[in-house]
Amino acid sequence: MNILISNDDGIAANGIRALTEELSKKHDVYVVAPDRERSAAGHSLTLHTPLRVEEVDGSKTGAKRTWVTSGTPGDCVKIAINAILTKEEMPDIVISGINHGPNLGADILYSGTVSCAMEGAMLGFPAIAVSLASMQMEYEDFKFSAHFTSVLLDKLQNFKFPSKCILNVNVPLLNSEDITGVAITELGKKMFTDDYEKRVDPRGKVYYWMAGKLIKENLDAKTDIAAVMSNKISITPVTYEMTRTETIEDLNKILCSGNSCQWY
């Protein structure tokens, strides 16, 4: 199959390299990635400056073709599908990663990795975001996650991705024999507290440093955070459909009773 790979850690990151090398063994892989670190970029797009794109030699990774852009993770997928790839190169699936660090719970709202996959889903393509749930980032650290992603694609051959949905995958940094299984999960709440440490620089100016602490999670919970803490690989179906439909009727009763909404 044709696979479009991108990420938010940049074209030179070990995670995207390991993923591309592994998937290229069985698939035609095309890479469009940022030219530098774009972590926590969320679902931002480049609107007011030119978006630079350059094709580079990606043959060492096994990719069919590779491009680097000046844009965000969302830019990479959007421009790849709408402007760069030919009809014959269009992806059967979009994969974002492998991210350097976990993307769990509500923190996915900030994630460039998850937003990169979401852009694929918004354009109508099946999409997966893959993260290594560790801050270690040596090349060897990503090899099992890359292998797991390849096996996961085989297992998903008969799975029909729901519209507007991606799979968010988090893999613990463990040897395969120490992983206790795969868990299909829901999103947890938060991994870290929102603490800021107030400091003063040598010139007497005040600044703040984010210093959140890890929040304990009940290991019996059905969440992605609990799964990873239990040494499981977490797979969470996530949608960007954010309308809370069950609240529409309640609001109509309060704001539009008697079929009249002209109270302003």
Structure summarized in a few sentences:
This protein has 264 residues and is of the alpha/beta class.
Protein model, in words:
The termini are far apart. With 264 residues, the chain is α/β, with parallel strands linked by helices. It is globular and about 65 Å long. It contains six helices and eleven strands. Helix 1 crosses helix 4 and helix 2 packs parallel to helix 3. The relative contact order is 0.14. Strands 3-4-2-1-5-6-7-11-8 form a nine-stranded mixed beta sheet, sandwiched between helices.
Q: What is the fold's blueprint, element by element?
A:
Blueprint: E1 2-6, H1 14-23, E2 28-34, E3 53-56, E4 65-69, H2 73-84, E5 93-100, H3 112-122, E6 127-133, H4 143-155, E7 165-172, E8 182-184, E9 196-200, E10 206-210, H5 224-229, E11 233-239, H6 245-255
Parallel strand pairs: 1-2, 1-5, 2-4, 5-6, 6-7, 8-11
Antiparallel strand pairs: 3-4, 7-11, 9-10
